[in-house]
Amino acid sequence: TKHTQGASTITQQAARNLFLGLDRTAARKLQEAFIATRIDATVGKQRLLEVYLNIIELAPGVHGIEDAAQFYFGKGAADLSPLQATHLAMLAPAPRTYSERFVSGEIDDAWRDRLHDQLRRMARHHVIDRRAMIGGLRGELGLLDRR
User: Fold this and answer.
1) Which residues of the chain have pLDDT under 50?
2) 3-state class (DSSP) for residue 113
3) What are phi and psi of 19, to 5 degrees?
4) Any bridge partners for residue 59, and if so which?
5) Rounded-to-integer distance, Cα 76 and Cα 63, Å
């Protein structure tokens, strides 16, 4: 459950988002580690992921997958295509930066390539089937213009 940019687990991110401030002091890091240990001991991984997906910031003031789906695509999370869901997942390391990058509703070739690479990776690992991958590779992202 680690991501490469920040090297913190989903548990640590949930602890930070739910209970701690934004400061980067050693004391806060110790608090985060303690809380993360307690969460891991008492909350199942499935429930933790559900909580995390409901609190993660995916644009300034936009928290959770449902709100992000509405913000970026004007639809509910359940109605997202695999390509759109992948886009939201890839925002997590830097949601404020990315939200500014995509404010026009357009993506550049480099981002499209990253989305497509991720779709291929998910198909290779059987997270999505081949049909969903091909649909994502051929489909339009459909970001809203928020200018």
Assistant:
1) 1-7
2) helix
3) -125, -15
4) 62
5) 14
